[in-house]
Amino acid sequence: MTSHPNGSAPLAVVPTVPPVPPVPAGGTAGVAGPLSQAVAEATARATRSRLDGEPRRTWEHAAGGRPTPVPKRLLVAVSHAIEKAVVSCPIPSTADGTPPTVVLALFQRLEFFERERVVYERLAEAGAEVVVGFVRGEEHRPPRGVHTVLLDAGEKLADEWTVVAVGPRAGAFLVATDQHAYDAHEHGTEAGRRFSGRWGYAHAQAGAELARLRLALGTRLPDPLLRSIDTLLGEVMASGGEVAGSGGTPGEAWATASLAHMITRMQTAQAGSRALREQLADAHRAADAHRSADVDSSSGLPTPDFLERWSAPGGSTELPVGLALVDVAGLDEAFEDPRAEYHAARKVAAALGQPLGPVDAAVRLSRREFLVVVPGASPRHLAGLGDEVAEQLELASDGYPHIPLTATVATIVTHARPLPVEDLRVALTPLPADATGAVDAGRTVAGERIAVVSTRAGRVLPEPGRHEPDQQEPSAQAPATRPLATAAAGHPWFGPDGQHPDDLLPGSHGVAAAEVPHPRA
């Protein structure tokens, strides 16, 4: 049992995700393949780890704890939420001695405030004491009823994106500091700005932020306004045994946690929509390259010329691309009959193309190497595709030309351009001949994880013209496939390895992979 950070009732331990049910007779493997099950296990472990730490992270967040990296999109959403919360509720009159409601915002530049001018004028008309700050040097037209403060470009407040709202019975705050860094995945410099911030709906913490700003702005605020702020702080600031940085009441903590969840979902939807647009553009480029690429005469698949035309550096977006390098050792042998090689290559091409979608592609890199390219793939989707390709290759080994087409498959979800095909080749080299299940082949220089699975250690193929027995006893010639949990026990891919839980997903990039799912799942 895990205790809540505030010392209240314990939380139940999250149960283990049940294993994949056995495949019924005559059915297909589905998600029961070694790559798919490995990704499912890694996803479950990452989810459990996040859930175990969620109460602590949420409590620290609601208590205005350590700042975390936040994108500009999040700051815009939280700022609007705080402004709408204040303007939509009746503001108590101060005529009967009730402390005022104060809203203080730092906008850095005047152009950012102009979009919100009407909202802050409305707050002032409703009875709130409203203060907005701008960097000195710009010409300001004061809004009706709003106090304006000029900031020097060199002072710390000039780097803040701050909205603090404090009333007699409620409060909210957003405090973020400009990191003067940019997210390369965003379109445009302004949208890609990065901040370090914290926010919440704890009344006491909002009061503490207002007191900080009151001291920092000092005499730049008029005396009547200073007296109003001091009156409010005298009512709402913690005293005696209370903790000034408290996460607030359960209702305030619930509001902070629920709003954080809703904003995350909103960002997920926005990122998903943006990724879909990028995927569509990427698909058009791939289709153009596919039509103009040379074709291998034996397999009928595009040659590596396709990859060079489509995925050259600077020629594509940073849309994630799933890659599965398929190494079919049986094609490397000398063929006495040219027709045998032709039919074998065609069988491989059919096995690779069977599970592919309209924007996916299979490419013949060399005599025995093939590459499956899946734009916009998630690790889970790519793992299922890799398992299906491996199964199709095993089935294709039966019958003419009686060539074993079992293969080793290395998969990665990558943002890199050019595509890291050589990294996949290196990952296949040290694979043991008797390897079973999915094997973690480590990470690329860019931190993207490679997974490898061998079909050589799978089911035993029947001899030509004979049916496979229903039951196959494990033997030295036919090693039984061990359960995944046993085969991969203690391996970093299937458990914490010092990285963030989201990094357990192959090809993930931290929060983006966990919170922003790829279009194809």
UniProtKB/TrEMBL annotation:
<dbReference type="InterPro" id="IPR019278">
    <property type="entry name" value="DICT_dom"/>
</dbReference>
<feature type="region of interest" description="Disordered">
    <location>
        <begin position="458"/>
        <end position="521"/>
    </location>
</feature>
<feature type="compositionally biased region" description="Basic and acidic residues">
    <location>
        <begin position="49"/>
        <end position="60"/>
    </location>
</feature>
<feature type="region of interest" description="Disordered">
    <location>
        <begin position="46"/>
        <end position="66"/>
    </location>
</feature>
<feature type="compositionally biased region" description="Low complexity">
    <location>
        <begin position="476"/>
        <end position="489"/>
    </location>
</feature>
<dbReference type="Pfam" id="PF10069">
    <property type="entry name" value="DICT"/>
</dbReference>
<feature type="compositionally biased region" description="Basic and acidic residues">
    <location>
        <begin position="275"/>
        <end position="294"/>
    </location>
</feature>
<feature type="region of interest" description="Disordered">
    <location>
        <begin position="271"/>
        <end position="312"/>
    </location>
</feature>
<protein>
    <recommendedName>
        <fullName>DICT domain-containing protein</fullName>
    </recommendedName>
</protein>
<feature type="domain" description="DICT">
    <location>
        <begin position="64"/>
        <end position="177"/>
    </location>
</feature>
